[in-house]
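Convert to structure. Protein one:
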Amino acid sequence: MYLDSLPGLPVPYQCTKEGRTTGNYIDEIILLKEGARVVFLANDVKCQYRNGQMGTVLSCYPDHVLVQVDGKEINVYQHEFIHYEYKVKSNTLLRDEVAS
């Protein structure tokens, strides 16, 4: 495993799921270490990172991870994915949040 080649102990981060989640597209627990290469799977609303961009973990904290991205250090906090179901009723598109 890639993390085994890095010094130090891994830090676990627990996923929180609510509602009717579908599939196994999000790991229940991820393990990170300083020096680990990571890839972002979402866009940041503050435009600090984008989907598919890579970075390097600099430090692991209980509530966030410090990652170097394109030469900049950014604090990455838990990201909320929201799963919606859509339906049309009376020619109006309705959106229902079913999981996060």
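Protein two, convert as well:
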Amino acid sequence: MIKWFVFLLTLCFSFSTLAQQQQNGPVCADAKIMREKITKEHKEIVAFTGLTNNGKAVLEIFVNEETRKWTLIGTKPDGISCVISHGSVYDFVKGELVPEKSGFTL
């Protein structure tokens, strides 16, 4: 099934989207509505979920294995989810990322 998602790589590519969201404002909604939109409209499934160290948010990465697009959302304890970043082209790797083999350059 799905291997370990390159979480650090996702965060690296998130910076450009974060800068754009700061200009346009974040996309936020009730967590249930957000998940339904991502799964139904974008046909993405959850590939990764994790609790932040401070316990104040749950992060989820949704992926579409056909289109290779992904969405990273954060959900706060109040039940509001916000899109942190999204993009296209991802890779699942096991262990350490070796850029030469994955096709990614850092």
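The domain at 7-93 is CATH 3.30.160 (Double Stranded RNA Binding Domain). Residues 1-22 have pLDDT under 50 and may be disordered.
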